[in-house]
Amino acid sequence: MTGIFKKDIKTTVFLLCLPLFFLLISYFFFEIGYGKHLEYNVYDILIKKNNQQPKPNDVVIIAIDDESFQTLDIQWPFPRAYYTKLIENLTLAGAKQIIFDIEFSESTDSLIDERIGIAAKKHGNVIFAGKIYQTNENNYSRTTILPPVKSITKNCNVWGIVNMTSDEDGFVRRYPLFHKIQDKNFYSLGVTSLIHLLKPNQNIDINNSKNTFTLGKMIIPFLGNRETYLNYFGKPKTFKHISFSSAIDDSSIVLPMEEFFPINDFYFLKESKVFKDKIVLIGATVDELKDNFHTPLNTKSALMSGVEIHANFIQMAINQSFIYLFPRLLFYALFSIILIFFFYLFFHLKPHISIILVITLIAIHFVSSYFLLTHLHYVIPYLIFPSNLLLLYIVSLINQYLKENKEKKYIRKTFQHYMAPTLVKELLKSPNNLKYGGSLQELTVLFSDIRSFTTYTESHDVQDTVGMLRDYLTEMVNVIIDNQGTLDKFVGDEIMSLFNTPVHTKYHALNACKCAIEMMDKLWLLHEKWRSMGREIIDIGIGVNTGFAVVGNLGSEQIFDYTAIGDTINLGARLEALNKNYTTKRHTIISEFTLEHVKDYVVVNYLDDVIVKGKTKPIKIYELIEITHLPEDF
Q1: pTM attached to this predicted model
Q2: Angle at alpha carbon of residue 260, lines to 259 and 262, rounded to 5°
Q3: Cβ(279)–Cβ(58) under 8 Å?
Q4: How far apart are CA 162 and CA 178, in angstroms?
Q5: Residue 15, C-beta contacts closer than 8 angstroms, at least 6 positions apart
Q6: 186 Cβ partners below 8 Å, 6+ apart?
Q7: Sign of CA dihedral 105, 109, 114, 120
Q8: 3-class secondary structure per residue, 254-270
Q9: How far is CA 114 from CA 87, 90, 149, 154, 165, in A?
Q10: Which end of the chain, N or C, is more open, meaning fewer C-beta atoms within 10 Å of its C-beta?
Q11: Residue 556's pLDDT is what?
Q12: Distance between CA atoms of 261 and 265, rounded to whole angstroms?
């Protein structure tokens, strides 16, 4: 009992510790290792499938695109006077906020730059771009901040950082909220936009312990590296794009391409109220200016411009459609319990049921992950659970294989001396036939016993007795095995064999009768051998009965054996003993129950109606004489 308890403790520890160990390894692989790229891929797929986002209506992009270069017919950088004109036009058009994703960090003409600042001050809500540069020289890292030139900032000193951060694979999935340099926070372009949309007097509270960035009543979740997930509104060009050249093309300016046919694009833009009460971002979208980035929503032919990434963040903040990181501690605690539970199930379910369960759980996991992201805006680790589930299933499969292999070795070792090889093979296919405990089965039992064996042992020395028994039992067991019987046990000189268990055989009663006849034939051959050796011969009696009996691994918890018990077995033993009372040619008596199964194939002689010990009704018994023929499918 103590051994069983220790085995249960080991199994419990194994079922608890292995899922936790796999989960720990998965954490290092998927969270901070190579597997993070795989996580990114799944995240990108789910983001692409997200069609829950409304159409962005608050932000408009003025794009420095191919059309702008063709229309203006000049090289980059554009004259800064154009930007003054742009601010003036957007002010007339009623733009709520103007944001430049273009750096004015180098001075050109201080008077022209100053006019940009004056135009921005007149509008009242213009944000310029600053940038952070990091250089490494002689193992020394140097951080440089490049704000707009003083000619601009002396009139409008509002600017935000335009630096983008990308993941290890080069994709932009997160947006920086602020950069901390020498204990001072420099806010990104998008956050600066929000600060001035919500009015400057709003308090900013950064709570690192809760990973929240609070701006007035707006709470922006952020990751440990001061970034927040971007909830993209669609593929590139989802936001309304207007060419830079069209936005500055008013009646006061004649563009090179319009020298003979002035069109005045801005008039139509103003009249259509494209910019009215909109947040307007100005930035480069043309590939040559290298401000385009890889994002999960890219198309095969187009990357997303940096200015549109800023637009996505601002629109996301306005809509309050932030993406949150699911609490890691809660995730791992929850999935630890789930994995342990299903690992336990895998150890007790059949493999084909387990794999169906695994596939179903993985499908549920990804459907839930998609729902969490698109409806509740939560990101969870996507591959840790399915990978662990598959690993645990494989472990349970290996364990089951080893267990079955061990059982098959045990079965082969145990039964190869008691059964025909063909039956052992069949038994190996269905080892459940040897289940612990008993079940009611129909079978045929055969008992054989040596007559007057006690007298024989008294008149012969041990060596002669053992030699005779070895010859006799060896031949008898061979006959039993050849007739698809199972040697159940030796009780001294008595042999008990079963037919139709643990492997089903169609003609079990006929097999037993054929076995009885051949046992007698083999005994007569032994008689000739013993006579030639000068040995004394022996005789046996055989009893055969068919019926239902309790069959299985029976016994105590410490010691058990595969056997059969019940009235059918007892009657078989009584029939064998009745041979002493009747003179029969083959010393074989079968019951009426056995005869019912073999009557078409045997010749018998009715002997008597007898009441055996333990019975009240008489039973017909018959002498088995011969087998006339065998069925075609025998």
Answers
A1: 0.69
A2: 75
A3: yes
A4: 10
A5: 340, 343, 344, 347
A6: 130, 132, 145, 161, 178, 179, 180
A7: negative
A8: CCHHHCCCCCCHHHHHH
A9: 13, 18, 9, 8, 31
A10: N
A11: 58
A12: 12
